[in-house]
Design brief:
single chain; alpha/beta; globular
């Protein structure tokens, strides 16, 4: 029989331990995300995989907010974040600082997630877009690469928080395997 573990048995970091821990070379950029629950869910994913930082851009709401807090469950306290008004300017700044910028979008010449290879010494910024419009075309055009999650059903897209969970886990697991 498999017994579920109690939270006290999970040996999770506290906020101070998280802040001191080695981070994965992943930055998450949220480009005009409307849903506060999606924002909070992305914070939890970022916490789970020791993401270096989250940038909240455009209309994306910022902590503290009760609806973000409801799904983040404290991750807004552990994960570093910053608000930037203009996503395109942020992408240009990240590139100037040697960070590889990757839009997660359906686009011509996109790399399928399962074909995506990482350089474990390179920090990547994963840009996730608005629930309806996706990543702004100007931002997609400015990025170094576009990454697409393959889908095989009838729907055109996945929820932003689901997409972030899939992509961050995939990049983290590839980084961890090469580290």
């Amino acid at each position: 029989m498999n017994r579920k573990l109690e939270n006290s048995e999970l040996e999770r970091l506290d906020v101070e331990g998280f802040k001191a821990a080695e981070k994965s070379p992943i930055i998450v950029v949220l480009d005009n995300i409307r849903s506060l629950n999606n924002i909070g869910s992305v914070f939890r994913t970022a916490d789970a995989f020791l993401v270096e930082k989250i940038y909240l851009c455009g209309i994306t709401a910022t902590p503290p907010h009760k609806d973000i807090r409801k799904t983040a469950l404290g991750a807004t306290e552990s994960v570093d974040w910053e608000y930037r008004k203009d996503t395109l300017e942020l992408v240009q700044d990240l590139k100037r600082n040697g960070i590889k910028t990757i839009a997660v979008e359906q686009a011509e010449n996109a790399t399928q997630l399962h074909d995506f290879a990482i350089n474990p010494k390179e920090t990547v910024a994963l840009i996730f877009g608005n629930e309806v419009k996706g990543v702004d075309q100007e931002v997609v055009s400015a990025c170094d690469q576009v990454l697409e999650i393959p889908q095989f059903g009838t729907k055109h897209s996945l929820n932003i928080s689901v997409s972030a969970g899939i992509v961050v886990w995939d990049v983290w697991s590839k980084w961890k395997a090469l580290k």
